[in-house]
Amino acid sequence: MLVLQVPTAIIGILIIALALAVAVVGVLLVHRLVPIEVRKSYSTGLGQIRGSLSPMFAIIVGFAAFLTLNKYHGAQLTVQSEAENVHEIY
């Protein structure tokens, strides 16, 4: 199969590019098909929702970064401990 021979990084980049292309096409279609009066009437409510979701997203990203760095630090300590043990055995 051809897909199995393609590196994972390239597949990831293609998936992200495809999602980005779909999003851009969707925005262009909405701007072309939905009148400006209709879009303006929804902007106030969406602004309030976005205002409350942005801090929650920031908190989630912060926790994810903290947990990732915590696991990375734990892995470093484990590697260092195992290296010391190998050195003692040698």
Task: Describe it.
The protein has 90 residues and is mainly α. Helix content is 89%, strand content 0%. It has helices at residues 8-33, 36-89. The protein is elongated, with a radius of gyration of 24 Å. The mean pLDDT is 88.
Global morphology:
elongated
The main β sheet shows up as: none
Q: Using the CA coordinates, give the radius of gyration.
A: 24 Å
Helix fraction bin: over 70%
Proportion of strand residues: under 5%
Instruction: Write down the secondary-structure element order.
Output: HH
User: What does the average pLDDT come to?
Assistant: 88
Structural features:
single chain, 90 residues, mainly alpha, 2 helices
Per-chain topology:
Blueprint: H1 8-33, H2 36-89
Short note summarizing the structure:
This protein has 90 residues and is mainly α. It has 2 helices and no strands.
